[in-house]
Amino acid sequence: MDIELLEITVRDLCEGYVDNLEDGVVGYGGKLDIRPPYQREFIYKDAQRDAVIDTVSKNFPLNVMYWSVKANGEFEIIDGQQRTISLCQYVIGDFSVRIGSLDILRAFHNLQDDEKKRILDYKLTIYLCKGTDSERLEWFRTINIAGEKLNDQELRNAVYSGSWVTDAKRYFSKNNCPAFGYGNDYMSGSPIRQEYLEAVIKWKSNNEIEKFMSSNQFEKDAKDLWFYFQNIIDWVKEIFPEYRKIMKGIQWGDLFNKYKDKLLIPEELEKEISYLIQDEDVTSKKGIYTYVLSRDEKNLSIRAFTAKQKMEAYEKQKGICIFCKKFFELNQMEADHITPWSKGGKTTSENCQMLCKKDNRKKSSV
């Protein structure tokens, strides 16, 4: 990897700045690709964006940026996209900030000529990196440890950049992307931080995300992944037509993979869901949807007996285990429902019995 130092002004950087959304973002006279396929969307919050302008306006040092030199002699950003877009957007008038002693918001065109010149003449330090694709991507991974740290999926997008990732991001990684419009009520996380894309690939690949992305890296499009996601959301809406906020963020793809071919009756499921939501012993309401499909009570986090209830049952039994009839100290015993929760038993003092740990675990495994 060859690294060369370059100094340019903000004026140079912003020359020819164009944001064509899906078609990319360019600057530096059209020679700089500001958003290569492996880069993230713009994620700076207003305070971070404004801090960049404040730093430059005061002539304070701004962190160095890294560009990669492409085969045709042009450039693409490896690190510094957020700062670059903040500067370019301000210069073209996209937002206002507080600059100088005046406590008012001012766009670039509101500044005095000397203030404009101070910003436009500000010198940026750029390191130009030349090397193979793999060297550039490894460098990208290394230098992004600082700042707005990349998450795992953003790094995967860099490692497996290509036609497939570019198309997949179109569906799953933009603000108001198709996946957001189609399934936001059921998904957690943020599209622009790649959390939608990561979740859907995880479901589609049975948690072998890297293997899946590697094998699909140069496929021309990601339509199969998009159709798969639509099938998941359609299935959820069909099986659980009554929407509740607790449905957001459930691992629907995993449930779809396991139960899509099972005969399910929505009316019966809804009746049971409504009953369980009202059951005070069910402390994980979100887990109800997984439970009605899997029948695994662990998803419900059934309310545990209180310390007082355990002590009352222990004293009543005089420390004797109901099953083996042997004496145990309180800390050697565990509380158990006399009538199981699944058969209508409640987590009340009247339904509490103490068993030694061995017998309680033996009973639970039956």
How would you describe the overall organization of this protein?
It contains 16 helices and eleven strands. It has 366 residues and is of the alpha+beta class. It folds into four domains: 2-150, no CATH class; 163-239, no CATH class; 263-300, no CATH class; 307-364, DNA Binding (I), subunit A (Orthogonal Bundle). It has a seven-stranded mixed β-sheet with strand order 1-9-5-6-4-3-2. It has a two-stranded antiparallel sheet with strand order 7-8. The chain has a two-stranded antiparallel sheet with strand order 10-11. Helix 2 crosses helix 3 (81-91). The radius of gyration is 29 Å and the shape is elongated.
Helix content, binned percent: 40-55%
* Overall 3D shape: elongated
Strand content: 5-15%
Low-pLDDT stretches: none
Terminal CA distance reads: 62 Å
Biggest pleated sheet: 7 strands, mixed
* Helix-strand category: alpha+beta
Quaternary state of this entry equals single chain
Q: How many structural domains in the coordinates?
A: 4
Arithmetic mean pLDDT: 89
Walk across the major sheet and give the strand order.
1-9-5-6-4-3-2
Brief rundown of the structure:
With 366 residues, this protein is α+β, with helices and mostly antiparallel strands. The protein has helices at residues 10-14, 46-57, 81-91, 113-120, 133-143, 152-159, 163-172, 178-183, 195-204, 209-216, 223-239, 252-259, 266-278, 288-294, 307-317, 357-364, and strands at residues 2-9, 18-19, 25-27, 32-33, 65-69, 75-79, 97-98, 105-106, 123-130, 333-337, 352-356. The strands form three sheets. The protein has a seven-stranded mixed β-sheet with strand order 1-9-5-6-4-3-2. Strands 7-8 form a two-stranded antiparallel sheet.
